[in-house]
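Per your request, structure below.
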């Protein structure tokens, strides 16, 4: 038991060493009211769990989610500023990037036109999908969609290090998901 305490103390001391004027680990984040040998999870995560409010719209929360969430709000603020809070046509010159962004954003907010068009903009895609008869054709359909849209339809295709041999890369398909505000 004593050796575990010594290793834990040495490990915590290591994390206090500053690197580029910052630390990777803050000892103040630990819940010192709990002994690590009694409940290590609460010792390490207790303060964060007690101090963090997870927004009701989110199922996961942490550093990467907070960064993504804040980025989405900043982007929405930029777009709202370009369109005077999404209420009017952009005052920017017609061919400017600002005008193009504002017009795209406003088109997404125009629920009346979206409802009027219904699935009409997807008609060509539905026809192509109806013509798919084999799994090979389905794979080609998904790949063509990916090439056209530069985004996965059902899946995202990415390359990662192989989980069993990190010296090689491996093509990876994963389910497509999006963060929502």
């Amino acid at each position: 038991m004593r050796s575990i305490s010594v290793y834990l103390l040495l490990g915590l001391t290591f994390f206090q060493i500053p690197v580029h004027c910052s630390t990777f680990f803050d000892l103040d984040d630990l819940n010192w009211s709990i002994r690590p040998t009694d409940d290590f999870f609460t010792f390490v995560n207790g303060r964060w769990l007690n101090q963090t409010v997870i927004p009701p719209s989110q199922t996961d929360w942490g550093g990467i989610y907070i960064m993504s969430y804040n980025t989405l709000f900043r982007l929405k603020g930029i777009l709202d500023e370009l369109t005077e809070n999404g209420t009017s046509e952009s005052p920017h010159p017609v061919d400017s990037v600002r005008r193009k962004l504002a017009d795209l954003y406003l088109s997404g907010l125009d629920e009346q036109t979206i409802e009027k068009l219904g699935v009409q903009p997807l008609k060509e895609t539905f026809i192509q999908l109806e013509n798919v008869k084999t799994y090979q054709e389905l794979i080609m359909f998904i790949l063509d969609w990916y090439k056209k849209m530069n985004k996965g339809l059902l899946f995202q295709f990415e390359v990662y290090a192989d989980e069993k041999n990190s010296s090689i890369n491996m093509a990876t398909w994963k389910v497509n998901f999006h963060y929502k505000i």
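The chain has seven helices and two strands.

Regards,
D.
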